[in-house]
Amino acid sequence: MALPTSYMTGSFTKIPNYFDTLLTAKAPDKFTAKFMSDLGFTSSNDRQFVNVLKAIGFLDDAGTPTQRYFRFLDQSCAKLTVAEGIKEAYADLFALNVNAHRMSKEEVIGKFKTLTNGSKENATIGQMASTFLNLCAYADWTETPKKGVVEMPIQEIITDTSETKKVELGEATSNTRHSIDLNYDIHIHLPATRDQAVYDALFASLAKHIPLK
Predict the structure, then answer these.
(1) CA-based R_g, the chain, Å
(2) 168 pairs with which residues across the strands?
């Protein structure tokens, strides 16, 4: 088993600030220490974040932004994307505890010692744990719906469809009553998707709740 070899030796609490600043900047062709400096992060500890981004799959080995980096720039899913990168980078840790992001620092240190077979100094293990925990603190760990599963509760909006409602308009001089038929129109706004399974599930649910006669 292994863990990312890239970690920070300080400035752990600045990790949220790093990410938030990246959201306001255009992705560079190459993500370098100079780019970090241009963003206002000039210390040697700040520059270590470049390798952390490589570890979580935001940059390739050459420092080129990956598709994950570009997904991160969509603020609606930025923190979810960070969580995705953490789970991948620390897959061995999450294999031991699926809720590793909720562990205490002492628990993380214990697992890291196990995963590294005690080959790291205590100070190094502590820095690795602090890097991991501060990454986790920024990420969004909300579970997202599985692909292809769409929940579309359909309310029963039509009742008494077995017979036509009559509306009495009053008595005519011939003591006969006039009536009109009411027709119900159902308007459904279909989701924008290319997944045929979504439409199959929707129409199957319609057939169940509003059977055609």
Answers:
(1) 29
(2) none
